[in-house]
Amino acid sequence: MQLEYVKSELNVSDPFTRQPPGLEASLSRHCFLMIWRKFGPFSWDLMAQTSNVNRDDKGKPLRFFSRYFDINSEGVNIFAQDISKLKNLFCFPPFPIISMVLKFLQAQEASCVVLIPNINAPWINRLRTYAVTSLKVARAFDRGAFTITHATGKIVPKIYEHDMIAVHLQFKK
């Protein structure tokens, strides 16, 4: 075995291991507390990391699952977890995997509040079938609801071109 430095532009693994920063958006504290007041309390943030995990109304970080190893997470890769017995779940999935997340929640018969774009997408029928109620969290082009960390380390607004809604889903039979 030999250790060798490979420049990022020459690293053939980068397309599989790095994601655009827009997929790691964080929800503002104000917006999360609005969701908390309507649907909370929450005990779990299903897709987070130490730097962006949501916090309860007293400021304590929720328990969470992370995408990669994180010393504070309860586990890695939500899809590898048994969440069927967990309560008070919140999830803000990256847009490209919303369908996978909804199928996973359905298979686990979970009750969960998900934060998603209010768009007509292939997963909309599953969403509508199991939706209990919803809340508009942010209007299209809102500059204060979401942020991302730019490659330079600076935190900048993340602007979505559609309304964002929190939907309480109940998949339990």
Q: Can you walk me through this structure?
A:
By secondary structure, the protein is α/β, with parallel strands linked by helices. The protein has one domain (20-170): 3-Layer(aba) Sandwich (Rossmann fold). It is built from four helices and nine strands. It has helices at residues 14-17, 29-39, 98-107, 124-130, and strands at residues 26-27, 44-45, 63-64, 89-91, 111-117, 131-138, 146-149, 155-157, 164-170. The chain has a six-stranded mixed sheet with strand order 3-2-4-5-9-6, with helices on both faces. Strand 4, helix 3 (98-107) and strand 5 form a beta-alpha-beta unit. The longest helix is centred in the first third of the chain and has 11 residues, at 29-39. The radius of gyration is 17 Å and the shape is globular. The model has no long low-confidence stretch (mean pLDDT 89).
Structural class: alpha/beta
Largest sheet: 6 strands, mixed
Give the number of domains: 1
What overall geometry do the principal axes of the alpha carbons give? globular
Strand content: 15-25%
Multimeric state: single chain
CATH class, named Alpha Beta
Q: Reading side by side through the largest sheet, how are the strands ordered? A: 3-2-4-5-9-6
Helix tally? 4
What order do the SSEs take from the amino end to the carboxyl end, as H and E?
HEHEEEHEHEEEE
Number of strands: 9
- Portion of residues in helices? 10-25%
User: Overall pLDDT, averaged?
Assistant: 89
The stretches of 5 or more residues where confidence is low (pLDDT under 50) are none
Which topology does CATH recognise?
Rossmann fold
Gyration radius over CA? 17 Å
Distance between the termini: 52 Å
CATH architectural label: 3-Layer(aba) Sandwich
